[in-house]
Structure formats: structure tokens, C-alpha cells
Amino acid sequence: MATLPILHHPDPRLRKKTALVGRFDAELQRLIDDMFETMYAAPGVGLAANQVGVQLRLAVMDCSEEHDQPMVMVNPELLDHQERQEMEEGCLSVPDTRDKVTRFNRVRLRALDRNGQPYELEAEGLMAQCIQHEIDHLNGKLYIDYLSSLKRERIRRQLRKAAT
Ligand code: NI
Questions:
Q1: Which one of 5, 83, 96, 115 is separated from 34 by 20 to 30 angstroms, measured CA to CA?
Q2: Nearest one of 39, 42, 43 to 31, comparing CA atoms
């Protein structure tokens, strides 16, 4: 396993819509393992493939306190969502900043696991938030898109400064 470099906003690769995963081969398994290692090392609770430069509809997550509930979402889609709520959020691709965004507190997810087997689950709270955040990534969207343009500009300036 290896940790992979995480792309930072405003890298254009974070803005592309990702492609459906069709092959569950050894290469995909290695990518998933590397994404988990990268996410845990960061540390973070979720990581989408396009954050490490791979344009596939794939994300890994672990919202547990003990970091012992790894979850893989391949080709995920939301079947249902309810209860809008403001939640504080951050992102490994937008380092050193957090802000409040409105998310659904409950979602119903359909996805494939790492072997291509379909599953459905209902999630609430942090896990529901994380699922929405990762699916946004796969659609080329970042949580800062929900913030005011003033806040987004401030974050862009901070990141540019940090990158030099
Ligand atoms: Ni993120």
C-alpha cells in the first residue's frame, strides 16, 4: 500500500465529472487500498478518487470514532434524502478551512462495494453528510461551492498563499 498525493483546490481535475467504474480488477483493489491508507494518514473521514487524480466514481469513507468501519462506494447514487440541516464541514482538498453548509441529515444510498456487489443503506448525521460530500466530489463539486462568493474568494487567496 502507498499514500497518494491529494490534489488541492483549485486543481481543475477536482472539477471534472468522474466516469462509472466498470472493472473490478486487481488494479482497482490496489487503488482502493491506497485510498484508504491516504485517507487514514491525512487524517480524514472520506476520500474520492478524483482527489488523488483518478477520474472514477469511487470513494472511500470511515466515519467511525475508532477508524474501524471502512466503507467503499462505487458508482454511488442517492435514492432519498430528508431533513435539511446546517453542518460544519471540511475537505482534504481545501486544507485548513472549515465552514457550515446545509446538508440532508438522512439519506438513502445505493452503491456497489469493492467487489461490484450492490448494496443499499440508510445513513444519518456525519455519515449522511460524508456520503453527500463524496458524491459531490464525484460530480466535480466542492463544499465551498455552497458558500458565499466572498468566502470562496478568501479561501482561494489563503490556499494560493499557502502554496507559494
Ligand atoms: Ni472532500
A1: 96
A2: 39
**Catalytic residue list:** 134
In this predicted structure, the answer to whether residue 164 has a pLDDT above a threshold of 80 is no
Residue 66's contacts (CB-CB under 8 Å, 6 or more residues apart) are none
CB-based contacts of 156: which residues, under 8 Å, 6+ apart?
Answer: 9, 10
Domains within the chain, CATH numbers bracketed: 12-163 (3.90.45.10)
Distance from residue 115's CA to the centre of ligand 1 (Å): 24
Taking the CB of residue 121, how many other CB atoms lie within 10 A of it? 13
pLDDT tens digits along 99-116: 999 999 999 999 999 999
**Residue 94 CA, ligand 1 centroid: distance in Å:** 7
Residue 107: closest CA among 42, 49, 56, 63: 63
**Predicted TM-score of the model (pTM):** 0.95
